[in-house]
Amino acid sequence: MDSDDTGRRSEHPEGAPITRGERSRRRAGAAPRRRASVTGVIGEVLLTAGVLVFLFIAWQMWIGDLIGAARNTAEAQSLAQEWEQQAQSQTPSAQPTPDATAAEAPVAPVEPVIAPEPADGQEFGIMYIPRFGPDYQVRIGGGVSRSRTLDTIGIGHYPDTQMPGEVGNFAVAAHRTGYGGAPFYRIAELHAGDPIIVETQDGWYTYRFRNLEYVRPSAVEVLNAVPQDTVEGTGERYLTMTSCSPKYTIMERIIGYSVFESFTPRSAGAPAELAGRGA
């Protein structure tokens, strides 16, 4: 038997049974199979959990805020359009011609309309802050509960504080991050004299920002009718905005104070500070 014939006899024909000796040789020449260690499994689980936590934080801090802000803008625009349509439907078709002499006379300040306090979770206003951009418009609802107002509407009105334009303190709260579009995320960027405008079904209430203050969470005196000890006298109309500080924590509260400037009835059209704002 020649060498070629021996080589052919030693080959294992396709489909033929594998002998016990050949199985032993194959096992001896095969590379050892890796076994997953407990440490490796735990490491992979922790890595996956870390990625999920990072995605959740990114959602809470950035993506969720952007989506919430866009939703706030759209729903506030819808509410403002509804009020405008209601006002137009109630306006008489024929208006008296204004007297020329009266038109030249200085316009006296209009006494603000004071609406009743809303129910918990009831929408009643929209806040505009031009400093925060032309798209900033956030609904205001009654109460400051997270589930019914802050997380769903955006800005909440503290019960038993005054209403827009009323003598005393119109006090509101909103998140700075993570929920409801974070309406007060940029509150620390306000400048003295910035307009803050609150729209209701009756018209627009313009306040002028005064200053910021940082207080303990227990400092409920910021909700008083006269919110600061440094503010003297009564008979004034204030707007107090409250939120958490620093960002992403609840260690303190950041407080923004503003003073009432004027009321513009709906029949007179929106204030000049809102001119050019897209509906």
UniProtKB/TrEMBL annotation:
Give the residue ranges for region: Disordered. Answer: 1-34, 79-106
Q: Where is the composition biased (Basic and acidic residues)?
A: 1-14
Gene3D superfamilies attached to this UniProt entry: Sortase
Q: What does UniProt list as catalytic?
A: 175 (proton donor/acceptor), 244 (acyl-thioester intermediate)
Pfam (any one)? Sortase
- Quote the biased-composition stretches of kind Basic residues, using this chain's numbering: 23-34
A single MF term (Gene Ontology):
hydrolase activity
Low complexity bias: where? 85-106
Q: Where are the transmembrane segments?
A: 36-62
Q: Which UniProt keywords apply?
A: Hydrolase, Membrane, Transmembrane, Transmembrane helix
What is the name of the protein in this document? Class E sortase
Q: Which organism encodes this protein?
A: Microbacterium limosum
